[in-house]
Write a structure and sequence with these properties.
Layout: E1 20-21, E2 27-31, E3 41-42, E4 49-50, E5 55-60, E6 64-68, E7 73-82, E8 88-96, H1 117-126, H2 139-142, E9 149-153, H3 163-186, E10 190-196, H4 200-210, E11 216-221, H5 230-238, E12 251-255, H6 256-268, E13 274-280, E14 288-293, H7 298-304, E15 314-318, E16 325-327, E17 340-345, H8 359-363, H9 370-375, H10 380-386, H11 396-400, H12 407-420
Helix pairs in contact: 3-4, 3-6
Bound molecules: iron/sulfur cluster (SF4) (2 copies).
One iron/sulfur cluster (SF4) is lined by residues 354-360, 371, 400-403, 405, 407.
Length: 421
C-alpha cells in the first residue's frame, strides 16, 4: 500500500459559512509568472487600456502560455509584489474601471464534448488553464499524450483547506460534465473521482448527478496525508507506479478546481478571472472560503472580512500548514495556484538537536533521506547521491520530527543547490 500518515484536519473552521465574494479591487496586480518561469514577457505598457481576458504577458520559452488581465481598465505600472512562493515578482498593475468589459467570446459551445483533441489542447492553451491545486503547471501539456484514465483529484488532503470542497458543493454538475467531455475528446475510457473516505459530504454532492455519467466512478481513498500527491494517488487507486510522468502510463490527474477551469474554457472560451481561496486560521476574525479576483492583494481581503484577532505574534502562510510558505507580510497577490491563506499563532518553537530517530526518513513519500540531506545541504557532491530534487515539499518530515527541526526548509535549500549546478 502507498505511504501516508494521519494528520490533524482543522477543516471545520472554514466550513461554517457559505461562499462569499470579496469586493472588486481598485487595482489588481497580475504576476508575470507561470509555474517555474518567474520572468515571463510583458506585452503591455503604462497607459494601455485592457479588457478582462486581454493577453498582457506570455510565457514563451519551451512552453507557450498567455497571461490574462482579470479586470478591464488601464495599465498603471509594472511593480514588484509578493508571490505565493515568498519571492517578489514583477506584476502588471491594472487600475480597475469596474466596467467588467471582456474580450469577445469566440465560438462558445453548448456541447463541450464536440471539440477535436487538437482544438481542446488549443483552448486549454489560449485560456491558460494551469494546475489550481498549487502547481500552476500548464494543463495542456498533460493532454498531449495518448491517455486511457483520468483521475479527478478531489482528495484535498492538506489540513485546513476546504476550497475544493466548496467548489464541488457549488459546481459538481459542471465538473462531471467537463470530465465526461474530456473523456470523449481524448478517447479516455476510465474516469475516477478520488475523494477522501472521511469526506462523505463531497461524495454525496457528486452522487447527486453521477447517474447521468455511467463511465465515471467515485473511489474513496484513505484519510492520510499526502494522498493527494499524484504519484501516491495513482498507486493507491490503480496500484501503478511510474518513473517520470503519469502520462507514461496513459494516466492524467487533474485537481477538481482545474477541471472547473477546463469547463469554463470549453464552454465560454474564457480564462478564469477569480478563484476560491480558503482564508482561515485561529488568528482571523472570520475564517471562510472567499471568491477572490485574481491579482487582489490578500491584505485588503483580510481587512474586508474583519482582520486579525489577538495581539501575540502571528504566522502568515501562503498555502496550507504542510506545503505552504511562511511570509513576513500579508501583502500577497492572489493567483490561480493560491488555494489557501492560513493565519495562526507563531509559537516560535526553537529547534532541538537531532536525535537520529529516523522518523523523517520513515514517513518521506519520496523515499529520500531528509535528515541526511539536511546535514549536506551545501555539499553538491554528496547531494548528487541523496536526490533532494525528488522532494515534493509535503512537509511531513518537519511535521513528524520530535526535535521540531524544519527539515523541509533544508531540503528546499538543497534542491536549489542542485539547480544551481
Ligand atoms: S523530504 Fe520532501 S518529500 Fe520527503 S517528507 Fe520532507 S518535504 Fe516531504
Ligand atoms: S525526525 Fe528529526 S530528530 Fe528524527 S532523525 Fe529526522 S531530523 Fe533527526
Amino acid at each position: 500500500m502507498a505511504k501516508g500518515i494521519k494528520v490533524l484536519s482543522n477543516k471545520s473552521m472554514s466550513l461554517n459559512d457559505q461562499l462569499v465574494e470579496c469586493k472588486r479591487p481598485e487595482i489588481v496586480y497580475i504576476p508575470l509568472v507561470n509555474h517555474s518561469k518567474m520572468d515571463c514577457e510583458c506585452l503591455v505598457k503604462v497607459g494601455d487600456k485592457v479588457l478582462k481576458g486581454t493577453v498582457i504577458g506570455r510565457r514563451n520559452d519551451n512552453i507557450d502560455l498567455p497571461i490574462h488581465a482579470s479586470v478591464s481598465g488601464k495599465v498603471i505600472g509594472i511593480e514588484e509584489k509578493l508571490y505565493c512562493n515568498g519571492e517578489g515578482v514583477k506584476c502588471v498593475a491594472i487600475e480597475n474601471d469596474f466596467r467588467e468589459k471582456s474580450v469577445d467570446l469566440r465560438g462558445a459551445k453548448k456541447n463541450i464534448a464536440s471539440y477535436s483533441k487538437d482544438d481542446f489542447i488549443t483552448i486549454l492553451k489560449e485560456c491558460a488553464v494551469t494546475g489550481m491545486g498549487g502547481g500552476d503547471f500548464p494543463t495542456y501539456i498533460k493532454y498531449k499524450s495518448e491517455l486511457n484514465t483520468i483521475i479527478v483529484n478531489a482528495a484535498e488532503c492538506e489540513p485546513y483547506i476546504t476550497a475544493d470542497y466548496m467548489m464541488v458543493k457549488l459546481h459538481a454538475d459542471e465538473i462531471l460534465e467537463a470530465v465526461d467531455a474530456i473523456m470523449e475528446i481524448n478517447g479516455i475510457d476510465k474516469g475516477i473521482i478520488a475523494i477522501k473516505e472521511s469526506n462523505i459530504e463531497m461524495r454525496d454532492e457528486f452522487i447527486h448527478y453521477l447517474g447521468t455519467y455511467p463511465k465515471i466512478t467515485i473511489t474513496m481513498v484513505r484519510n492520510v496525508y499526502p494522498i493527494g500527491w499524484e504519484k501516491l494517488l495513482i498507486k493507491e487507486i490503480l496500484g501503478i507506479e511510474y518513473e517520470k510522468l503519469p502520462s507514461d502510463k496513459g494516466i492524467v490527474v487533474n485537481n477538481v478546481s482545474t477541471i472547473y477551469a477546463i469547463y469554463k474554457a470549453l464552454k465560454y472560451r474564457r480564462p478564469i478571472s477569480k478563484r476560491i481561496v480558503t482564508v482561515t486560521g485561529e488568528r482571523l476574525q472570520e475564517p471562510k472560503n472567499i471568491l477572490i479576483r485574481l491579482g487582489t492583494s490578500m491584505k485588503n481581503v483580510i481587512e474586508e472580512f474583519g482582520g486579525y484577532i489577538g495581539s501575540s505574534k502571528i504566522r502568515f502562510i501562503a498555502g496550507g500548514p504542510m506545503m505552504g510558505t511562511c511570509l513576513d507580510t500579508d501583502d500577497l497577490v492572489v493567483t490561480k495556484n493560491l488555494n489557501c491563506v492560513l493565519v495562526i499563532d507563531d509559537k516560535d518553537e526553537a529547534d532541538l538537536p537531532c536525535i537520529r530517530c529516523g522518523r523523517c526518513i520513515a514517513v518521506c513519500p519520496a523515499n529520500i533521506c531528509p535528515v541526511l540531506i539536511k546535514d549536506k545541504v551545501n555539499d553538491f557532491e554528496s547531494l548528487k547521491y541523496l536526490h533532494p530534487e525528488k522532494c515534493i515539499e509535503c512537509g511531513l518530515c518537519s511535521y513528524i520530527c520530535p526535535s521540531k527541526i524544519r527539515i523541509r526548509e533544508s531540503v528546499r535549500e538543497a534542491k536549489k543547490e542542485i539547480r544551481r549546478h
